[in-house]
Amino acid sequence: MNIPSRILAAFFALLFCASAFALTSITPASHEVGAGVVTYQILVRSDTDWTATKNTDWVMLSSTSGPQEANILVTVSANTTGADRSATIQVNGETHTLTQRSANAALQEVWAFGLDGCGQLGDNNLLQRQYPSRVTTDVK
């Protein structure tokens, strides 16, 4: 095979196999919740249609498939087991990890988004947040 034929073959391989190299991201990549019933959202961004699966029945998803960018509401049932537990949500091969505290553990968290020019989001970045972001510094 001569060089122009190889280039043409490589071009067609890229053109017709692009879906095999789809890029997908989940924001946030992990989340920790308290023992009660909790609902939060994750943002899925993909350059192709996506499918979401979960590995447990105590987690419910508002949507299990969609086109490119979407928010999925994740609803977590109350943890009455007395032990921490974890679950994974898979979207096109990317993983979101969920950890739920037991009823014996206390967890308090704050999420913020919007303008942050004066530090009002509490994350010490002074950057606008378009999507909810967990505040990990001391909250007062």
Give a verbal description of the structure:
- There is one protein chain.
- The strands form 3 sheets. This protein has a 5-stranded mixed β-sheet with strand order 2-9-8-4-6, with no helix packed on it. The chain has a 4-stranded antiparallel β-sheet with strand order 1-3-7-5, with no helix packed on it.
- It has one helix at residues 3-16, and strands at residues 24-27, 30-33, 38-46, 50-54, 59-61, 65-66, 70-76, 85-91, 94-100, 110-114, 129-135.
- The mean pLDDT is 81.
- It is built from 1 helix and 11 strands.
- The radius of gyration is 20 Å and the shape is flat.
- It is mainly beta.
Describe, in short, the structure shown:
By secondary structure, this protein is mainly beta.
Task: Note the topology.
Elements: H1 3-16, E1 24-27, E2 30-33, E3 38-46, E4 50-54, E5 59-61, E6 65-66, E7 70-76, E8 85-91, E9 94-100, E10 110-114, E11 129-135
Parallel strand pairs: 2-9
Antiparallel strand pairs: 1-3, 3-7, 4-6, 4-8, 5-7, 8-9, 10-11
